[in-house]
Structures are given as structure tokens and as C-alpha cells.
Amino acid sequence: MRIQKFLSQCGYCARRKAEILIAESRVIVNNQPATIGQIIDESKDIVKVDQIHIRSIPQQTVVLMLNKPRGVECTTPSKHNAGQTVFDFIPRPFARERFLYCGRLDKESQGMLILTNDGDFAHRLTHPSADITKIYSVILSKPIAPNQVAKMLQGLEDDGEFLRAEKILESPPHNSHQVLEIHLKQGRKREIRRMIEKCGSYVHRLKRTQIGQLKLKNLAVGNVKLLAQEDIDKLFA
Fold first, then answer.
1. Distance CA 90, CA 110 (A)
2. How many domains is the chain partitioned into structurally?
3. Angle between helices 119-126 and 15-23 (to 10 degrees)
4. Fewer CB under 10 Å: which end of the chain, C or N?
């Protein structure tokens, strides 16, 4: 098995991240720096990342849905990060598993976040070829005009990146604030916030409510649901 696939299936990281770690000489196989594409025998070879022994491939793919609270970061816990992360919400039965998040939400955003111990699953869900729609409820600090909504649907240029919403619907106001339901397929960093700012407003609240055909529904903030296969299928529907 290639070293990148091994790290991915172990749930340590996605394959692209594994290649970065290998290039940085942070992956060691039998006391020697690994090379990209290196073939290993997972039953015999000793693989370490940053001196951590990566021991085994998960026997079963676990997929969790978290209703992420605001103020919680999508980042790996470390001594440099004293704040609460999404991994603090992993239920006790899975506490020994290594999880990945599938499509991050920034610190001030909330809502549906998928976590899994299977790197291949994470790659499949987040890769652009999956063509999966994600839906967000966005409360604006001040209203934007219909022509600005049209610009977001046509696409905007920001810092050399093309940002575009697939669909935008007007939702009932929230405490006199304008609320938009925004559908995205691509997942650029802070994409909705950047588009709204280009249109002359700011995001007051942002919540991801749906991925594919799977909806957040009544899952309470901070709670986690173990997804059954029928739920997982809805992610790709």
C-alpha cells in the first residue's frame, strides 16, 4: 500500500495533506524519511508522523455529524491552540479514533460539520468532483440590493479567486435583519463572507444547514449524531 493511502485510511489525514507531510520529512518509515508514493507493508513497517506511531487501519468507517457551535475552531488540538476545537465534541466511544473534518467552518460560523476516521471518505466528500451542494442560512448586518445578489450568482473576483453562489433564496427576516439561503458547490476559504463583503455588507450569523440531501434538522448545538448508511448516502445524493 502507498504511504499516502495508509495515512489516509488510518484517518490521520487526507492524501494531499500526507504528501505535504512527506515532503516536509515529517513521515518516517522504519527510521527513514518516507518518500511520496513509497510502498509499505502495513503489517510490518513502523510508520511515524511527528514521532507519533501510526499503528493501524480503522476496522470500520465512522461518520459523525456535529452541530458546531460558534467560537469553536476546526483545527487539530495542540499546545499552541488553547481554545476549544471540534474534536472536543467526539463522543467517548470514539475518543481513541483519529478524526478528520470534511469541509471546515470558520470559528464564528456554526452548523453542520461532518467528521470521519476515514481519510478516503473525507477526500471523496470534499473533492470538487463530488459536485455536492452545501446550504447555508446567512443573516446580514445590513441588507444588500437585488443587483448585488445577482453579482454573487454571476461570480465575483476576490484576491485572484473566483467566488460564486449556485443559488440564493430570500428567507424570512431575523430581528429585522435580512436573511439569505445561499447554496454553494465550491468551498473556497470564507467564501460567503468574502462575497457579502464585496457586496457592501457583513455576515452577522452564518449557519450550514445541509450537505447534499442530509439536513441538520433538530440536532442541538454542540450535539453529535452517528450517521447510519442511509444518512451517509444522502450526503452524496
1. 16
2. 3
3. 110
4. C
Q: Judge if 72 and 176 occupy the same domain.
A: no
What is the rounded distance in angstroms from the CA atom of residue 115 to the CA atom of residue 60? Answer: 14
Q: Is 159 a catalytic residue?
A: no
Q: Please state the rounded mean pLDDT for residues 62-71.
A: 96
Look up the CATH number of the domain holding residue 68.
Answer: 3.30.70.580
pTM confidence score: 0.79
Residue 169 has pLDDT above 70, yes or no: yes
Span 206-225, pLDDT tens digits: 999 999 999 999 899 999 99
- Return all residues near 200 (Cβ < 8 A) that are at least 6 apart: 144, 148
d(CA 185, CA 164): 9
Catalytic pick among 45, 106, 120, 231: 106
Please indicate, yes or no, whether residues 27 and 69 belong to a single structural domain of this protein.
no
Tracing cell 450526503 back to the chain, one arrives at: 235
pLDDT value of position 129: 87
Rounded CA gap, 167 and 146, in Å? Answer: 13
